[in-house]
Amino acid sequence: MEKFEHEYNADQIQVLDGLEHVRKRPGMYIGSVSVRGLHHCVYEIVDNAVDEALAGYCNNINVVIEPGNIICVEDDGRGIPVDIHSKTKISAAETVYTQLNAGGKFGGDSGYKVSGGLHGVGASVVNALSEWTEVTIQRDGGIFQMKFERGKTVQSLTRIGDSKKTGTKVRFLADSQIFETLEYEYEVLEKRFREMAFLTKGLKITIEDRRVDPVQKADFCFEGGLKSFVEYLNKNKEKINKEPIYIEKTEGDVPVEIAIQYTTSYSENIYSFVNNINTIEGGTHLEGFKRSLTKVFNDYARSHNILKDKDANLMGEDIREGVSAVISVKVREPQFEGQTKTKLGNSEVTGIVQSMMNEALSTFLEENPAVAKAVLEKCISASRAREAARKARELVRRKSALETSTLPGKLADCSSKNPEECEVYIVEGDSAGGSAKQGRDRKYQAILPLWGKMLNVEKSRADKIYNNDKLQPVILAVGAGIGADFDITKIRYGKVIIMADADVDGAHIRTLLLTFFFRYMRPLIENGNVFLAQPPLFKLSKKGMQDIYCYTDEGLEKSFAELEEKGISRDSLSIQRYKGLGEMNPEQLWETTMNPETRTMIKVTMDDAIKADETFTLLMGDEVEPRRQFIEQNAKYVKNLDI
Q1: Catalytic position from the list 428, 463, 591, 613
Q2: Could you read off the pLDDT of 333-344 as tens digits, one per residue?
Q3: Arithmetic mean of pLDDT over the chain
Q4: pTM, whole model, 2 decimals?
Q5: What would the CATH number be for the domain defined by 405-535+602-637?
Q6: How far apart, in whole angstroms, are the C-alpha atoms of residue 74 and residue 492?
Q7: Is 485 an annotated catalytic residue?
Q8: What is the CATH number of domain 226-384?
Q9: Known active-site residue 238
């Protein structure tokens, strides 16, 4: 039987509390009872297995979505301890699944140095919120099993056989009395497990969806760790350093892993993690990274006479233009702060990351002068563009201060000044703009017509954007600035609605505008202020019958069927296929697309920033071949083309 270097037994399981109101207040423990909370339960069980991998005892994790939305998670770690716990007088394994805050993740002498789970509450919370849970453990030469229903033990830990293997298998069915839905989204789980595998190099994570035929399956194992992660982020971008800069070192008891790769794009993509938790608000580890990046590049540029004595230092934002980076640190006692508790607060981590990176990055630049020169040329170019953008921004601000009206001439504004009830329609073309102006509710609906070819911001710097006559009206109308200056509290309209034709040109304009909002007004999307209008594709009419508008091909077929039931044949109907918004008169546009009582709109969300960044890069970037593949693969899903 295999012996482990660090003992992991019942005495290391500490009990803090009972399972009281987990079922009454599940949101306190898993965030919500929506599909997001449902997925969170899977993450909690998988996190426990990943913690075994972080401790050095687990190489494989298999996740299966079985028919009926049953989840099975199996690992080859040490297996949960099965001996009797001195305080609870039941097995340690049963203690972990029935006592809130019981786990091997507390204190320095516990089974784990660092942990990504919710400090041991995961297993018991998932158990409490499941209709049933079944846990099978292999360790100490045996196979042990226990079963629960809604958190209560129905079969205590029982030895059911012999085994020389070790590991834990957990099967559970989430409780329909608790959750709004039990339908797992394979793509959401797949994305999370890919991320986990990147962050734990060498760990193999497999996910299978057996609800479908053929079975959907993905295997993730990245020996390159974060290096592989950065290469994945940049797979459709042109790289400056083909091989990512890779730093891996432990200082004290804080392991740090960093991968950096520069691309020719103008946006920065930096992702930071603590104990495998995505710190979306950053924190001290990100601060240390940024400080080091700025210092090392400036020092190199000075010492190699790339920056002259008269030149000012490069700013951090200049040096981060086009960078993709992932920072992962492991901290024994992480302190989280910020609105969503995803910002690292441990002050000592700043210095650890900064000093480690100073040394490694300086060495890399000295050993790779061609890469250093190429990156610095880009940084200097970014610095000049930033200065030009500052002047253009000042000009816009001065104009705003001097002119009696700060709004673009073509904007037909609404009379209300309350952003919460106001909405602006950004409309493609003057004719559609004219119809929209006549058909709108003037009290709270503003219309901004756009015309001509719009700038692709994916291939442009900020100075070009400030001076662009197509985008300036949008910037002025929204009224909250752009880029680092964007202030969501200053928006003039609570809803920014893109209204374009339902054809390829309209889809292109939507994509250009969404790319602009994503890159330069991202809080607008994050805050849920951006919408896509849905104009109808067809109008069915007949003398003596009220017109019927259809928004999809399926809707048209359904209307035909309903009319046939009423004895109205297809032959007697007049069918109009709308090619553009301009074909509708003001009354029709109001009735179908602008009246809050009857309209359909799509809210643009940004649940997955990595996926969004990848899509915009793909659709609007320089690389043609990946874009062609994307269109070929997704064309079959397109009904009414939307992003």
Answers
A1: 428
A2: 889 887 667 899
A3: 85
A4: 0.70
A5: 3.40.50.670
A6: 52
A7: no
A8: 3.30.230.10
A9: no
